[in-house]
């Protein structure tokens, strides 16, 4: 059964860090790309970062510098490290499986989504 399960969210103070995890099953990370997206209250879902089958990474322009995507194929897991968290990073973060091996940040080209993990940045 194809599944993506996110974890690692929580309440964190501004300036803190989190590492989100996305454990996938039913497919392998060398067959499909994975993307991270987020949706803040009252806003549309936006792309954060993605990693293709060959390890190629992309970041949304506004996410460069504080966000780092990585993967551990042996663990079927993709990570999103977020540093220097800001209140505007508050959102539900989702990982998703791309249609193909190579992916970008358009959510249209993702076929399966996890349930999301909530990140709240507040003092």
Can you describe this structure?
The chain contains no helices and 11 strands. The protein has strands at residues 3-7, 10-12, 18-25, 34-39, 46-51, 57-59, 67-72, 77-82, 91-98, 110-113, 117-121. Strands 2, 4, 5, 6, 9, 10 and 11 form a 7-stranded mixed sheet that branches. The protein has a 4-stranded antiparallel sheet with strand order 1-3-8-7, with no helix packed on it. It is globular and about 40 Å long. The mean pLDDT is 96.
- How can the largest sheet be summarized? 7 strands, mixed
Q: Rounded to an integer, what's the Rg over CA atoms?
A: 13 Å
* Overall geometry: globular
Structural class: mainly beta
> Could you tell me the mean pLDDT?
96
Distance between the termini: 40 Å
Share of β-strand residues = over 45%
Order of helices and strands: EEEEEEEEEEE
Task: Please supply descriptive tags for the structure shown above.
globular, 7-stranded mixed sheet, mainly beta, 49% strand, 123 residues, 4-stranded antiparallel sheet
Set down the secondary structure blueprint.
Blueprint: E1 3-7, E2 10-12, E3 18-25, E4 34-39, E5 46-51, E6 57-59, E7 67-72, E8 77-82, E9 91-98, E10 110-113, E11 117-121
Parallel strand pairs: 2-11
Antiparallel strand pairs: 1-3, 3-8, 4-5, 4-9, 5-6, 7-8, 9-10, 9-11
Q: What's this model, at a glance?
A:
The chain is mainly β. The chain is built from no helices and 11 strands. The protein is 0% helix and 49% strand.
């Amino acid at each position: 059964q194809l599944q993506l399960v996110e974890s690692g969210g929580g309440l964190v103070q501004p300036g803190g860090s989190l590492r989100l995890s996305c454990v996938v099953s039913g497919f392998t990370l060398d067959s499909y790309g994975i993307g991270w997206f987020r949706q803040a209250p009252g806003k549309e879902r936006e792309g954060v970062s993605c990693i293709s089958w060959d390890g190629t990474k992309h970041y949304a322009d506004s996410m460069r510098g504080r966000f780092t995507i990585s993967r551990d194929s042996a663990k079927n897991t993709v990570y999103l490290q977020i540093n220097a968290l800001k209140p505007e990073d508050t959102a539900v973060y989702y990982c998703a499986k791309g249609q193909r091996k190579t992916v970008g940040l358009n959510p249209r080209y993702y076929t399966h989504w996890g349930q999301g993990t909530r990140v709240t940045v507040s003092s």
